[in-house]
Amino acid sequence: MTAVPDSSFAMALGRPRSLNPTKMFGRIFVYGCLVVLAALFLAPLASMVMTSLKSMEEIRSGTLLSVPQAPTIEAWASVWNSACISVACGGLQGYFGNSFLIAVPATLISVGLGALNGYVFSTWRFRGDNVLFGLILFGCFIPLQIVLIPMAGLLGMLGLAGTIPGLVLVHVVYGVCFTTMFFRNYFVTVPAEIFKAARVDGAGFWAIFFRILLPISWPIVMVSIIWQFTGVWNDFLFGVSFAAGSSQPITVAVNNLVNTSTGTKAYNEDMAAAMIAALPTIVIYVAAGRYFLRGLMAGAVKG
Amino acid sequence: MANLGINHVTKSFGSLAVLKDIKISIEDGEFLVLVGPSGCGKSTLLSIIAGLEEHTSGTITIDGRPVDDLEPKERDIAMVFQSYALYPAMTVEQNIGFSLEMSKMPKAERVERVSKVADLLQISHLLKRRPGQLSGGQRQRVAMGRALVREPKIFLFDEPLSNLDAKLRVEMRTEIKRLHQRLGATIVYVTHDQIEAMTMATRIAVMKDGVLQQFGTPEDIYDRPANVFVATFMGSPPMNLLPATVVDGASGPRLSLKGADVTLPLPSSVTARLEPGSDVLLGLRPEWLSLAAEEVSANPMLTLHVDVIEPTGPDVFVALRAGEREIMARLPTGTPIRSGEKRAFALDLSKAVVFDAGTGIAH
Ligand SMILES: Nc1ncnc2c1ncn2[C@@H]1O[C@H](COP(=O)(O)OP(=O)(O)OP(=O)(O)O)[C@@H](O)[C@H]1O
Ligand SMILES: [Mg+2]
């Protein structure tokens, strides 16, 4: 290339891309389908948001998808602060807090343990390692319902029945199977020579884990956190089985709220409650979803 | 700095035998080069010396002491891996300094050692980068740096220069040799490059399919190859192998070249008694052929058809034909020769080797 830009080259770069009619039609069709499908999926959410912002009179008079004429957050405020759930009338806020007290420790502990397990299974050989990993994998496929009764017995024995720490334990035990699998499958893609180099350099078990492996693991850490947090947050079965009264998670509370309201059904409050229960998981997805797609192994090996 | 003994080491992965009864020992300060075709077990042998891989039987000794039960870090070795194996999340500086950090060296001393090595390898300007931001050659130098920053008993290098451009490779080759001379370090070095093997080694071990073919000095390997495999693997172009039959002559046995009406005296290197009528291969390095002068020389002569001429700079490789057999010769540039000619070539048989045609083992 000379310093003077070649004119045909410049034109090729600058020329607007024109599509022939068949291609154009194809595009329109594809985008049309996408828009319709997106609308279909978003309609329930839109309906929930609209309904939660309406007063009861407006709900009775309007349609499901109509825009609120006089938007109000009264329903949101009332379910948060003062709605009656079973016998107590303190709103959802306490249960919302419970869910955090359950989901955050359960997520951190199960992801931490899973990372450690995955590291051991991927890197270090010991007697019976494959059998043990097989058993852990098997844990992923045990339906929740099967463990309910033995788990209740265990919690009773430990004196944790009906408490938040008890629920955390249940979620950790159940979640560790998944996180172990995630981390192990991620770590086996790390070239073996990196571990060899670290061992020659004098790094031990923990140094290899913390200094070499963890810093390149954040994509899988994010995946595990999102998986675990949403799973634990959205759990209903364990919550309703193992938590009592004021230690129940928000999913159970929303259910009680919707089912125990006396007199007319307050649709706006039901919708607001459901929205509140769903918000943290939505936020997590929006904030951390992009880490799903990232890899960090670039430059570790030849090529 | 230490001597190294590899005594009857075997290694199998399940039923696959990868190393078979390897026996090599080198003195303190020697430079051992392992060569052999891809997959012959060179990297596996290095891993066993390093303690990263367990051998199936045999012993490894360092400084005369068996180290079979020692962890890699207890063996006091440094290793450069074939795939570099840099730590992706660390900067170049941290990569090079990691082993020092693990041995709890104070920060100030560490920084100084790292910067010295970085200067040596011309990567000082890259210290703050991560491996992902480096070219292949730069990564290779970082991997070298990670080993050089330590002062281990033994250095293990697994093809450390394979990814460098020709100029850098020659520079690094000299640099490693200089380092070897300066530190007097014991080095085990794997390479595919024969020039590297010949120029750097004090000992060469040639392997094939997990079997040690020959272990000796570069001169041993080049001039006195133990078998046909070593003869053709080392040297480029490879040694010519001319089928011949042993015949009786007036002053002892002679070699009658097949397909040519010539008999040659038995090279002086042959000590074994050869039975007349047995089939052999006469090994001739391309540089042992030269264009015969007009007058009859002391060396035996062969008249050959000049087929192809390949100039390489300092030398010309000439493909010659005797019947349908091809013979390569290496002549000085400027030799007056044209393809299509028939010329007489003198054979220097003083170093020629004779192999058994059946077993391929040198007589
Ligand atoms: N972990 C393993 N399990 C099974 N077979 C293995 C394993 N590691 C190496 N091998 C086999 O052992 C043989 C020797 O491998 P090695 O890596 O030592 O070869 P190499 O001489 O270093 O080859 P190259 O020059 O290509 O690097 C090969 O056939 C390889 O397939
Ligand atoms: Mg190799």
From TrEMBL, chain B:
> Pfam families given for it?
ABC_tran, OB_MalK
> Where in the numbering of this chain does the ABC transporter domain appear?
4-234
Where is this protein found?
Cell inner membrane
Query: Which is an annotated GO molecular function term of this record?
Result: ATP binding
Query: How does the record say this protein sits in the membrane?
Result: Peripheral membrane protein
Q: Does the keyword Nucleotide-binding apply?
A: yes
Domain of life here? Answer: Bacteria
Location (main, coarse): membrane
Keyword set includes Metal-binding: no
Q: Which UniProt keywords apply?
A: ATP-binding, Cell inner membrane, Cell membrane, Membrane, Nucleotide-binding, Transport
NCBIfam families in UniProt: PRK11650.1
Give the record's family classification.
Answer: Belongs to the ABC transporter superfamily.
Could you tell me what this protein is called?
Sn-glycerol-3-phosphate ABC transporter ATP-binding protein UgpC
Species per Swiss-Prot/TrEMBL record:
Rhizobium herbae
